[in-house]
Specification:
Two copies of one chain form a homodimer. Chain A is α+β, with helices and mostly antiparallel strands. Chain A has a single domain (about 5-155), classed as 2-Layer Sandwich (HIT family, subunit A), CATH 3.30.428.10. Chain A is about 30% helix and about 20% strand. In chain A, strands 1-2-3-5-4 form a five-stranded antiparallel beta sheet, covered by helices on one side. The interface between A and B is medium-sized, with 35 and 35 residues. Strand 4 of chain A pairs antiparallel with strand 4 of chain B.
Chain lengths: ~160, ~160
């Protein structure tokens, strides 16, 4: 079954052009529609990572390239390599802290064409184990601010950016 | 709707352990269940790429790390960087040849835990545009051998591995 788009999803779908890019907006101002879902976790000159507020998959994060590019191969080669190394480093930190049974690394851009990754720790107990998380709608698992901060601290403790 | 597992899918799901890894089998012998779906396109010391026989998304490919690892961060760091650079290079070659409107880069491992990427060129005309390709079942678009070879040649012409 296709997930039913919420109002938030429809707002997010609007940002296809660079000057309307919601990742650029979030990176530059910390604000915009994506700020409703993401809490900043770490940043470098090349990448920015956030904890995703939907923690149904504990440790779920998003990491974006700082530079606006619609595809990985359109980033500067050095920036691309650095960004990829940082993406993998964040995945490792998530796995170490949460003991995921598998990681999913997805650079899609179906909604917003600015290079970013969904890093989704997968667990044998998760209701979509062995399937992608996009295949069935689910209620987001939202936490309190203190719990988000605790998860961020736990990931940061492993992150070697 | 969840895709209905075919007999092939069920066979593929079996290979979770390294000694039963169907990517290792394909890489080492060119044979096994995955050979029913993939046609070799190019290889390096670090990566191997195949054209996916389901060409509903023209140019769809898979690229795997030659070394068996369940996660990107478990590859040797140099091999990981090289593999990622090659993965991005293949994505660029696909995009250049097929003029995709977007690429999806997905390293999932939900079925087989050996680092591999689904590189899926996405088109505004495709029936799942702006959604992942996993969200609805579809009939694979199979081609004749000559058409597969032609697509492989077209991608190779752009590939700088």
């Amino acid at each position: 079954m296709m997930p039913q788009p919420s109002t938030k999803t429809l707002e997010i779908q609007a940002g296809f052009k660079e000057d309307q890019c919601q990742y650029c907006q979030l990176i530059e101002t910390g604000d915009g529609p994506l700020a409703e879902w993401f809490i900043k976790l770490a940043e470098t000159r090349t990448s920015i990572a956030w904890l995703h507020k939907d923690q149904l998959w504990p440790g779920r994060c998003v990491v974006a390239a700082r530079q606006h590019a619609t595809e990985l191969f359109l980033l500067e080669p050095d920036a691309c390599q650095t960004h990829l190394r940082e993406m993998v480093g964040l995945a490792e930190a998530i796995q170490r802290e949460f003991g995921a049974d598998k990681l999913n690394y997805e650079c899609l851009g179906n909604m917003i064409q600015h290079v970013h990754w969904h890093l989704i720790p997968r667990y044998r107990w998760d209701f979509l184990w062995r399937r992608t998380i996009w295949e069935e709608a689910h209620e987001p698992e939202l936490l309190g601010d203190r719990d988000y901060e605790e998860r961020i601290d736990r990931i940061r403790a492993h992150l070697r950016w």
